[in-house]
Design goal:
The structure is a single chain. With 433 residues, the chain is mainly α. The chain folds into 2 domains: 6-136, no CATH class; 148-429, no CATH class. Helices cover 73% and strands 0% of the residues. It is built from 18 helices and no strands. It has helices spanning 6-10, 20-38, 49-64, 73-82, 99-117, 121-136, 138-147, 150-169, 183-207, 213-223, 225-238, 243-268, 273-293, 316-340, 342-353, 357-369, 375-400, 403-429.
């Protein structure tokens, strides 16, 4: 078998044992899943039955390659595996593992044995690892499912609809003025941003009340820096003892923005990643240094951690709102770029940044990909959007929070702006990096 290259160093290719690597692989898969099942009480099949079922699948798969008269053997083997479900349950009253799970896993390991026989051993091993993890992590998965309410399940369904129903049917061509309105590309960006926001949303829903301040900041930055700033600014105003906690969460959330923008660049325009990384690194590192230098020991008095109340980013209204906003920014940027050159794009960046950084970032990256904007101009426009967005959020802190919170956040916000300037200078000095 050439899947694992055993034939080259064991010289089995032309010997009677040429199928031995596939059989050994199927045996290992069966042992992996069988060990997990054996840990349960009174299981239908365990550490012996699973390897035998996997090897059976492999042997029958090998036989089907020998001639057409054996083509029905895999189906017969599957029926044999299914007949295990009719075996007696055991002594009445004994606690035992659910038979349906074990029977499904047994049928699956049989199928993985068949994959090993048809030179797909690597895929079979990967699937076996994933399935074993699903079996082993049952308590954690059950806990997560119980934490999801109707609203959360609706969020998942909405995201699935946005991604797998709406996106594939949209035309992938430009419409409207300057041919910048590409429905497929616009909705693809919606799916990207909604996906990032949804990951943060579920992370906050699952962990928000139980995690430390740094993780709250990271989750808030993934979900929404504006919402995080608003929630914790109000918390510091209403409950002054939480000021230090609120400041750290706000600052960390705003630093995560730079990582998020770099990941968006990687997904949309990978060729710009080096320049974007050079731009994002100084504000991120200086911001972390500022937080570390101003770190103080938390108060010994316990105070409730403010909870992030976030909207479901996959809601159709929010998704359509982002799509419309993105389309408007695209049109304005294209028109102003034609009328006033790069200065027009900079004006759009300053204005749109007051509301959201993602839209102008995606717009300028699209223009860069279409060679309508140079790399440095793209980075400068994104920087201007970040500056206006940062100033807006500091205004929210000063007006909705407290003076102490504003003073705690000011140094880091200033070094973030300084870091953006350094990042732009580095891109000027090393344009080819």
């Amino acid at each position: 078998m050439d899947s694992w290259n055993f034939g080259h160093w064991l010289s089995l290719a032309s010997s009677p044992y040429a199928a031995l690597p596939a059989i050994i692989t199927s045996l290992g898969i069966g042992l992996l899943m069988g060990v997990e099942r054996e840990r349960k009480k009174h299981v239908l099949a365990g550490i012996r039955t699973f390897p035998m079922a996997a090897v059976l699948g492999c042997l029958l798969g090998l036989l089907t390659k020998s001639g057409s008269q054996y083509q029905l053997l895999p189906a017969a083997g599957l029926l044999l595996i299914g007949s295990f479900g009719f075996l007696p349950q055991g002594k009445p009253g004994e606690e035992s593992d659910p038979r349906t799970t074990t029977l499904a896993a047994l049928a699956l390991v049989y199928g993985l044995g068949l994959l090993c026989a048809v030179d797909m051993a690597k895929l079979a091993v990967a699937i076996a690892i994933i399935i074993t993890a699903l079996l082993y992590l049952k308590p954690e998965l059950t806990d997560i499912s119980q934490r999801l309410d109707r609203h959360d399940l609706l969020a998942l369904l909405q995201f699935a609809a946005l991604t797998f129903i709406v996106l594939p049917v949209l035309p992938n061509q430009g419409f409207g003025p300057y041919a910048v309105l590409n429905p497929y590309r616009i909705w693809l960006m919606v799916v990207l941003i909604v996906g990032v926001g949804l990951a943060g949303y579920f992370a906050v829903r699952m962990l928000g009340e139980r995690v430390s301040t740094p993780v709250l900041g990271i989750l808030g930055g993934l979900a929404s820096t504006t919402a995080t700033t608003l929630v914790y600014a109000r918390a510091a105003h209403d409950n002054p003892p939480t000021t230090m906690l609120s400041a750290r969460v706000i600052l960390l959330a705003n630093l995560v923005l730079f990582i998020r923008l770099a990941l968006i660049t990687l997904a949309v325009t990978p060729t710009a990643l080096s320049g974007m990384s050079l731009l994002m690194a100084p504000p991120l590192l200086l911001g972390l240094l500022s937080i570390a230098l101003h770190r103080q020991q938390p108060s010994t008095t316990e105070h409730a951690t403010p909870s992030l109340q976030l909207s479901n980013p996959a809601e159709l209204k929010l998704a359509l709102g982002f799509a419309v906003g993105f389309a408007v920014v695209l049109l304005c940027a294209a028109w102003l770029n034609q009328q006033f050159g790069q200065r027009g794009v900079y004006a759009v960046a300053l204005i749109s940044g007051l509301n959201d950084v993602d839209a102008i970032t995606l717009t300028t990256l699209e223009m860069l990909g279409q060679e309508k904007l140079a790399l440095f101009s793209t980075l400068l426009a994104i920087s201007l959007a970040i500056i206006s967005n940062t100033l807006l959020k500091f205004g929210m802190i000063a007006s909705l929070g407290s003076k102490e919170l504003a003073w705690r956040c000011l140094p880091t916000f200033l070094v973030i702006l300084l870091g953006l300037g350094i990042g732009l200078m580095l891109n000027l000095m090393m344009p080819q990096l």
